[in-house]
Amino acid sequence: MSPKSTAKDLTPPQYSFFGQLDDDLQRIEEEIKKNLHSSVPLIALVTRYIMRSGGKRLRPLMMVLASRLSNYQGDYQYALSIVFEYLHAATLLHDDVVDNAELRRGRPSANTLWGNAAVVLVGDFLLATSFLLTVMSGNLEILQVLSETTTSMAEGEVLQLINSDNLEISEQDYIEVITRKTAILISAACQIGAILGEADEEQEEAMRRFGLNLGIAFQLRDDFLDYAGSEEEFGKPVGKDLQEGKITLPLIHTLQSSNEADRQRLVELITSEGNYEKAFAEVKTIIQQYQGLDYTDQLASNYIAAAKSALSIFPPSPTLESFLEIADYTLTRRT
Predict the structure, then answer these.
(1) Quick one: how many helices (H) and strands (E) in the chain?
(2) Total domains, the chain
């Protein structure tokens, strides 16, 4: 599948920005393919599989747009942007192993095809390649931001593991987990784009805050879709988070808002070993009763509003409009 058809196939028709940015997406795809090589055949096989599994390339795209918004005039942004796709792919590979996932974006997950050991090691290869490409930029500030980012992401993974099946986790603690695990990579993509464009400190900070807030909203939308989406649209089974012991915001809000009887019933359903599909359906009903999905959707909207506000220091431009459309897309996407 070509980059252009990928963008069109995966994008709701009201979001034309993907089509408008097809040239950028094609350049990103070319750079991804250029670096997908290894003298070890299995590495090349697995990396090609994960990279061709239907991702929208939002992270590298936002780095390219951030550099453009910061008036970068060179052509290096495409080569550097793929660092964020490789890092993202590495985390997906590792996550699927930890979660024993069977599907990823509607296809068999790599670990079901090649086994956990091979997939973990290929994830390590992508991580190492990301840092090699970053070092080649020759920019110490970019390397520092990326190093701090990957450290925070690793901490987020451990925090998520610690809080697996933790029915007492607070909303604040949960937001910290998703900030470290997911949002910070999007934030880094935007910030590094600004650094590449030699933006001033205020603009760099604005791009960082935009990415961070958008990243939190992006994960909250995933949380929403895990209860409200469909497997065909979402690319993985709905209810998977709960089955894997991940207590996400719709459930956190419901556990904190429900009366004692409903809370006790939720605990029974979550910890039961019976029919999972039946239990999930009842959990979903209780969540809807206490507006857990509406609450998650509204909080995501608040983070998107904060993301857009961060960009208010930039003058109007087609690039700024693309950022604002990406923010709107985050709130309504079904995949």
Answers:
(1) 19, 2
(2) 1
